[in-house]
Amino acid sequence: MEVEVMKFRKALRFLLVVAVLFMAMSDMALLAADDVNTESNCPKKAPVVVEELKPSVFMEYQYFSAQGRAEIVAVKSPVSGLVSEIKVSEGSLVDLDQELAVMNAGADEELDKLEAAAAKAKKILVARQNWKEKSEAAIRSAEKAYQNALELMNEKKSQVNRVVKAPVAGIVHLVMAAGTAIEADALLLEISNPRQMIFQAPLKDADRASLKISDKFIGTGEGFKGEVEAEIVAISDALVSIRVNNDSNQVKDGVTFTFKKFIAEHVDAIVIPSAAIQKDSLGDFVYVVEKKKAKKLYVTPGAAANDKTMIAKGLATDTMLIVSGLECVVDGKKIRIVNREELAKDKAKVQAKEKDKPAIKKEKKVAEPEVKTKIVEEAEKIGEANKHRYIVGLTFERFTINDKNMREYYSYWFQHIPGLEFSYQAVDKIDIWATAKFYTVKQTTLFFEDTVRFTLIPFSIGGRFRPAKLGSLEPFVGAGINFYYYRESIKGVAELDPTSGLAFGFHFQGGTYFYFSPSFLKSIFAKHNRSLLGEIFVKFNIVNKTLAEALPEDEGNKLDLGGFEMGIGLAVKF
Known about the structure:
By secondary structure, the protein is α+β, with helices and mostly antiparallel strands. Helix content is 24%, strand content 46%. The protein has helices at residues 2-37, 108-129, 136-160, 205-208, 340-355, 359-364, 368-384, 404-409, 519-522, and strands at 46-52, 56-76, 81-86, 93-94, 99-104, 162-165, 170-173, 181-182, 187-202, 216-221, 228-235, 239-245, 256-273, 278-280, 283-290, 293-298, 300-305, 308-313, 320-324, 335-337, 390-399, 415-427, 430-437, 439-444, 451-465, 473-491, 496-515, 531-546, 558-560, 563-573. Helix 1 packs across helix 7 (368-384). The longest helix has 36 residues, at 2-37. Residues 24-39, 360-376 and 378-386 have low confidence and may be disordered.
């Protein structure tokens, strides 16, 4: 037992040394990033303009912007046949109900037959009306037959020379040539209707659920005085079509309009200038003042309008928000609060100082901007790893099994074992994670010296939650379920059939990732952005198997395969 305790202590010391090294490298990376982000022409105390946050009323609107064009009305052929005559030309201005074309259904022969049938029916009717002994029933039947023949003939006549009229006033386009054969419902021509303007705007997935046909909007346009009323007339997967009544002819073709619809009124809202919000690989953030230093806070933006954004989460009232001078600000940097006039003067002084530098110094520093750019890229890419969703890696760990009989029989139950792991970022900060390992231990019997081997393949799947990234470190916690395959065999004089089975349970885990500099993998993946990650973790497994027969010494029929794991890993994120 003392030997196992010594092994445990050695393994724990090794993991602590690795953790200290990771922390040291993380601090160095953070210092390098701060030095890079603080440009040479920025003072030690960054001059900034601040704004004290107070609750206010924020009116939330839904916005769309698009260029307008006249509504296009398609005029289709009412019948199949020939275009006998076109009465308009390309670009013609037409009025409502103006004649556009004459259609010939190509049924002259059929019309002749219908005319003959109508004449015959009339002749029969006249003959029955002149019978000496008249039959009212026969006369009514002949009248009905004659009436039906007339209706068929007149219907066909209307199709032979069908006049097509303009459904709206406007300008004619895409005119079909006279003499062209055409099918029913085929396009004959188009009329652009300037009295109805259509605006087609891109549609985001987040906006689609809140829209429906006939929703009303208010629009304002470039060079247009006042507002116009508008309504939604069509919604597709990617576009929303908004129509404006243009009877007054004030809205011109090609002019961009912005449409808005009232959504909600937010009382006691935190509203900040949109320019104060910045973004990195972890999300949106702002800088606030804390103890005369800049502090980086991650926020959740809400609706935005007129260069103002409502903050849904992350900021409180009375916070001093940095709204200007952000080019010299990094997390933890000392600041000097000034007004906007003083900030403008400080910037002017810096620019004048740069211009007054001797030409020799400029020549010496010709390459400096390029060097700094590369350093900046290195520092920024440490955070860019979070843009990638997949992690594949190798682990090496110390693995234990709780079962008392296993520990007493197999002297090396505390094993160094390898493993593979894979994770996928399903949503922000939450990964679906899986790992598989290989554990084996053996013992020799005393009398026959047979080899008894126990093999375990533990497979775990679950989730990992990464609450926040601290420089190059990214802690995580997680939980999930375990699937264990085990097998025990005896080889030698007393060879017996092997025993195997499956056991199920669950686990809890915690640890941290460490992001190495992207330059580690640059020579291997020159054209692809890959990140190298270190990992330190601990894991508690609870796995029990109910056996068919009880264990010796009245210890029940439970095989406890749960235990403790701790280890390190190396992975690639892509």
